[in-house]
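User: Please predict the structure of the protein below. I'd like the answer in structure-token form so I can feed it into my own downstream comparison script.

Assistant: Understood. Taking the following sequence of 292 residues as input:
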Amino acid sequence: MKRFSGVLLALVLLGGTGACSDSDQPLPMGLLEDHLNLVYSVSDGLATEQFYGDILGLERMADIDLPGDRRMIRYLGGKSELKFIVAGQDQPRMEGGMRNARGIRLLALLLPENRRAGILERMQAAGLAAPEFAEGNRGPISFSYGMTRDYDDNQVELVFLNSMLPDFAFDQVQIGLGVSDLAAMDEFLQEVLAMEPVETEANIHRYEMGKTQIKFWQVPASKPAWVGMPHEKQGMTMVQFVVSDVEAVRDMIVARGGEIYIEPYALGDIAMLMFVQGPDGVLFEFGAATAK
């Protein structure tokens, strides 16, 4: 398969499960919806709203009040929820970038080309540098992709595709990880989390869970592991599975050789949560809403 330079989407979504309409097949891991979510810890709620809402124009969801006078700001990227826990200024912070750390390092958004000019105009008006875009095409599909960063220095890849593509082509988001051992992450995603491999031969490996793609690349083990819970650091902290039964998933994970980082517990009357640790300490959250 032809590979393009950079971190672009490889356009596998047009043939993979991430671009398909809803299937009658049962979702793995007890997932309630056909996507995963990404959890952030951010320093400034207003800045988050400006970047993801005002500038990128993502659809806003209702905020969620959390215990400890915290709140969660939510946006939709494709069909995935981007969940920003506003944690304040006093947490450790690391410069963004794909290869300067291990952990969750990138969000890629797939957007129609007709939104590109407006986004760039709003970035310029806000004093943000415009990304440098690479352009290309694959058959009838044209695309461009470039990198930017939000106000907390999280790296965001903007991938613009033909505006005439069907709506489901824009349902997917991609979450990018820097890992020290590609084979270890391959084994974890396949054997523990039951994710479907899309590409495991190139420099960037790709897996899908419904309309979300996890992609990862190798960085030296000497690079710091920028991983941890939202109250421990700023940045992209966790990949989230919303499931029907956390205890059942716990038993499944343990049977498959996975490592439980935090055992299931109740978050007030909001949800039951559990955290699983993958290679390099990357955290995967499993949550189920508490019945009322």
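That's the full token string. The chain is about 15% helix and 40% strand.
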